[in-house]
Amino acid sequence: MENDTQLNFEKTCPICGKGDFSFNVNKIRNNFDLAECKECKFKFAFPRPTLNFIIDYYNKIPNHRFFKISAKKALKDCKHILYQIKRYHPNAKRILEIGCSAGYYLFAFKKLGYEVYGTEFSSDAISLAKEWFDVDIFLSEFPPNELKGYFDVIIIHHVIEHVIEPRMFLKSAVEFLNDGGICIVQTPNYNSIGMKMFKENYPVLCPPGHLNFFTSETLAKTIPENFEVLLNNSTSSAKNDVYNWFVGLMALIKVKEILKRKVSKEIVISNSPNSSNKPISSNRKYIYQKFMLKFTEFIHFLLIPVFYFLDKVNLGENLDLIIKKRNLK
User: Fold this and answer.
1) pTM of this prediction?
2) Collapsed DSSP state (helix, strand, coil) of residue 142
3) In contact, 188 and 161? CB cutoff 8 Å
4) What 8-state DSSP symbol labels residue 201?
């Protein structure tokens, strides 16, 4: 395995700290194993990368993964989170999103009148958030310490699966909540029907991008003390569920490798922030992904009753966890 010096082979569960693991027979991706802690049943990628390894990994990804969107689309995309805020903390005014990418959700919440802050490791994303959406983001994992206890809502949307120590990460994150504040976490569901169908071919199993693979039971084990659980169940709100099924099917029948070889011949877009403002319609990978997302969103709409049932039996593609900080005064 490359960069072994930036990988931690110490057998310690990131959730409970125990060292008794079982391993998947096959490597899941990029020579990482799928480990399962025998004590708490948490599944995770092994070995564990260092923070420098993760930062280097993401810095190598071309920044055309960031895209400019309209206020209308931003408001549409944040509808599910907005509903949760209105339901569980209707008086909220100050929002922090940890790992906010180029600030798409923050753009929408700012339009709705909330005071918004974000954190992000990508300097490109931060530059684009300011240029496109006039949103200020901290270049760090968490805001400055003086903002601890300041926020009514913290959003951790598809971030906790990326971090090295998820339990410690969530404990540090919620220090920025005030009493009565809520933390909204969404992450892929290892117990989903897609995972059961496609197993190691499923796109969610993609270390070192994704390092942690939660069920509702193991996600609950990350909750810090003095927090009340308001919601912990599966959800199909993201509308990328059918897309993930499609990608899993392509990998299973080996079509995905053919497409990857085809799009790898294209000219890669520059990593400079200025280039991200240029049209990227000529990028074939982007065109394929955009078409498939639109197509699979339509299929998702047709299958809404199916996804409603899957969520009821906790087999939906994602997990929603909402916790509330108790007032100890």
Assistant:
1) 0.86
2) coil
3) yes
4) G
Three-state DSSP at 112 gives coil
Half-sphere exposure (Cβ direction) of 310: Cα atoms closer than 13 Å: 24
Three-state secondary structure call for residue 212: strand
Q: CB neighbours of 321 closer than 8 A, spacing ≥ 6? A: 184, 185, 186, 187, 216, 219, 220, 223, 229, 231, 232
Alpha-carbon distance of 37 to 264, in angstroms, equals: 37
pLDDT tens for 92-113 read: 999 999 999 999 999 999 999 9
> What domains sit in the chain, N to C, each tagged with a CATH number?
4-50 (no CATH), 63-241+303-325 (3.40.50.150)
**For the segment 35-81, what is each residue's pLDDT rounded down to a tens digit?**
999 999 999 999 999 988 888 888 777 656 678 889 999 999 999 99
H runs (alpha helix) in the chain: 51-59, 71-77, 79-88, 104-111, 123-133, 166-173, 193-198, 216-220, 241-252, 255-263, 284-302, 304-312
Report pLDDT digits (tens) over 263-297: 443 333 333 344 444 433 345 555 666 777 777 77
Angle (deg, nearest 10), helices 284-302 and 255-263:
140
Backbone φ and ψ of 118, nearest 5°? -145, 165
Which residue reads 């990131």 in tokens?
A: 14
